[in-house]
Amino acid sequence: xxxxxxxxxxxxxxxxxxxxxxxxxxxxxxxxxxxxxxxxxxxxxxxxxxxxxxxxxxxxxxxxxxxxxxxxxxxxxxxxxxxxxxxxxxxxxxxxxxxxxxxxxxxxxxxxxxxxxxxxxxxxxxxxxxxxxxxxxxxxxx
Length: 142
Known about the structure:
The structure is a single chain. This protein is of the alpha+beta class. The chain contains five helices and four strands, in the order αβαβαββαα. It has one domain (3-133): Glutaredoxin. A four-stranded mixed β-sheet has the order 2-1-3-4, sandwiched between helices.
C-alpha cells in the first residue's frame, strides 16, 4: 500500500482537496472550517503531494485546477456534487440545500464551471498556499 492509500485510510473522515493558491477557494475553506463545529472534514491543497497524486488518480490535471474534490468513504465527488455533498455532510440547515440535487447535474455543473472559470477574478490569487492556524493544522494533509 502506498502513502496515498495509507493517508486516505488513516481516518474515515471526508477529505477536501482545494486550490491552495485561489483566494476564493481558501476563503470557502475558511468558511467551512468555521461552520464545521464537529471537525469532521480534513483538507489538502491540490498543490500538495497527496493532492496532486489524488487529482491525477482521478484523471484530472493538477496544473489546470478546475474543481475541488470531496472524497468521502472512498467515493470522489467533483463540481456541484462536491459542493452539495459537502453541505449535506456538514449537516444542520446546510443539509437542506441538498434539494438542489433535483436540478440535473449538467445544469448544476454549468453554473459551477462558470463560477470556477471566474473565481480568480472574484478574490484573486495568493502567492503561496494557505497556512492553516496551529489550532486546526492537524486537519490538513500535505
